[in-house]
């Protein structure tokens, strides 16, 4: 017997198996790696295409020929903002940005009403608020035609034009919309501009001035119309807020809100100035005017500041607001960083693609029962978790390194601008979290198909929800930060948030020519990377712990209670003999109805439990398995109070009809299911608490072949041989002998993948696996199923040789196999052991009859019956068809010589076509015992 393998030996065996399995799946790995590569190439080509489009003249700074011709040399062209449209101006170099007079943002009322613009105000001190608000609107337009620009800055101007995203070009001066100068009361004389509408109504005439001037290189002939400005008192800021919101909700042609601003002076007075400013920032056309547009707020702040200054110093005092301008800039090619723009969504899918790969691999081992098969051959939980987790981590790290490398080589700024160390930490923490999550979720799936579909729905659903919902919450500054953090507890959203921050940093760095994200940027309150790293790291540790706990408690064969981690604080278990003594006192064994051989076996078990013997490898005491009733059906007794002892060197055969409980018994013994009550010991170890120790000396040939489809027969035996601590030449020799003994060596069969094996070849390989490493106890569940006669004979020879110094429990439906291999047999019926003994004893005990057969013409059937009655009146006819009759003759009533004499007499009297006399077969015994067992259960 080989000594139990160490932790590192088991880890080495599993690692070698995984590497071999990985080598078999080269095409799958190539496809996996190609996904991020193809995506990066796609983004690279798309970036090139967009860059080429933006290099066209319509996206460059505008230029014209100085000689007023349509074509000229570049030296004859002049370029700049004044020759560019609104898109081209973004590319222009502007060393000295134009100065624009500050404006109010106005919204007009009905076109046929005189424009009236309302300002709301409130304050703790009503009189103070009234005085200050009265100072806001001037009483007249003051123009100095020798310096029109200075005059425009000193008046209160406003526009209905939508502002742009910058101050290079002011749409109010370049559009056809008029500019309003707001006064407390417009003049009523010299009125012009009386339009007539299709409705027949005539608009009230508006006072208008029109004069030319030059601004920012534009020669403007602009209309300036007068508009009344009024201020209205409200009792509280909440009233103002409601009115502004109501105006926004009623923003349609029949009634357009004309409130352009509102002020709350709060507790302001002559010594303290404290004010809140409201402004309009919502428009129907959100595509052209959104959160990126510049709002005309500075003029409102200057307006209230001037009003307060006049309250303190008199009406002649003024804080002049001359102009607004953009910062100077160099020539800037128009660029869009496509990888940063789409990276959040696309790269989320790239990283999440690993999750279904890991999950389906784990569920596959669970579905095919390969995990428990490895465990039954000695693989401990520690080596399994270390190697499997490390294996998936190595694959994930290689995958992510290829992903980042591809993107960096192709020059995607998403990768090249951000600090690689931050990227490494982020991806490393997340892939660990992802692997831990796969281990956890694998416990809840039993089908690979279900796990695969669910995983991929999660992958694509997470990407879409992140890109079209979660990103909106991130960008909304008014959305509570606490809810953002709460949503980031979902790992997919945390991944997207990190990728989003990388994309934002890369975009900003690309636009201004600086680096992307650096470690010091994580301290920025607007950067969510720091909180994401903390959340993912904490979840990684928690999820890994929970996954390991669930695996230990619920995995078949673990034998651990939910409080296994408190084992050091629990009371020490009683000794084996003492525990059994207590069980004996608490339960009475029903022996009155048991047959003598079964009762003797029970007494033998009791004696062995009181005086343990080292030569008995398997001892079962009152073992019981009950499956609870479901859907109104009663509970099912699979195994009823089984007591059995199997010594070393014996092959014990279990016979019984389908559903008798044979497989349930073996499932309990190998740790797949737990017994309802009773006890069983293998090599002196309890199957309820010490399955880990039992597995080191156990071999199993399950009813269904549990094999890796992509591994060869030789690779299976090498793996399980290493688990049994076979090394070097000993391992090689054991594998070669196993292959040869079971006819798996010649013809390249040994090196063919198991998925290509026939059913019989798989069965032989399963038997070879169960015997590799010289286990002390072997369970074989119908090992000869699906084998041809020649192969079955070869298999029997292997099992006969394997019986030496080991205990074998074998189930079969073949009476020939049972008689050829088994030293003792036990017949099961409805979960109960009906009889036990060697084949000869059973045939002698339950046979006791001869089967006499004679075939004659139909006319002489009665003569045959008379002859049999003369032999023994206790004969029983069991078969009759067209002159052929079979009779059971009790052995104690007849002698074989008498039968021969009777046949000779019959031949002289009539024609006998055929006759025969047979002794009882094992099949006859099996049928008889099965019938008696069913009859007994029916009566009881």
UniProtKB/TrEMBL annotation:
Origin superkingdom: Eukaryota
Which Gene Ontology CC terms are recorded? membrane
Record's bilayer topology term: Multi-pass membrane protein
GO MF annotation: an example: ATP binding
Residues in AAA+ ATPase domain copies: 648-832
**Location(s) in or outside the cell:** Membrane
Q: Which Pfam families match?
A: ABC2_membrane_3, ABC_tran, ABCA12_C
Cross-referenced InterPro entries: AAA+_ATPase, ABC2_TM, ABC_transporter-like_ATP-bd, ABC_transporter-like_CS, ABCA, P-loop_NTPase
Q: Which PANTHER family match?
A: ABC TRANSPORTER A FAMILY MEMBER 3-RELATED, ATP-BINDING CASSETTE TRANSPORTER SUBFAMILY A ABCA
Name-wise, this protein is AAA+ ATPase domain-containing protein
